[in-house]
Amino acid sequence: MSDDESAPATVPPDDELEAAFAPYITAAGQVVHHWNQLQERLGRVFAAAIGNRKIALAIWYTPHSDRAQRDMLTAAINETLDDKWKRYAPTAKADILALVSAANSLADRRNDAIHAPVALAINKHKLTIISVYFHGNPRALKLKGKDIVNEFNLCISLTRELYQYAEKIETAINFSSHYAWPDILPQLEKKRQKILVDLQRRQSQTE
What we know:
- Helix content is 67%, strand content 6%.
- By secondary structure, the protein is mostly helical.
- β1 and β2 (126-131) form a beta hairpin.
- The longest helix has 37 residues, at 14-50.
């Protein structure tokens, strides 16, 4: 072999490959777990808004997609008289709609975590997780060049915040005499302001 020829690459042993994949597998699993918790909590907000828990949850579990369930929640909130929500807080209706809107936005990150293919690559003599974007997979392309585990951890953090907020909303609806309506999450403020404008415009059109 001449000096300018490179030695053939060697495949790392299985235990090294498994160790390199472990952080990704853990993070992806956490994304799934926390997302499922959020979606279930939104179902309980739906039940609290409807009022008849048994019937509401039977309806909630009928669709076969998370997005269809969230669309039902949005529809239920929109079609409920404003007076019902104002007894909780002046912005209660907009707060719930902002929560669902944020969940819809976050769902795309969740889907990236679940559906984007990944592989191991060697970077500076170290095994690292990369998205398999080479064939044009749109979800993998969105993760191109990113620290995938960090992206997933951010998704986990945001999902937990929405879950905790949804839990406080459900509690405030079900036990309004004991629990005040929760303050809006800072990251939802812009969404709420836009929704408030839309609600006011719709109200003016019906008057």
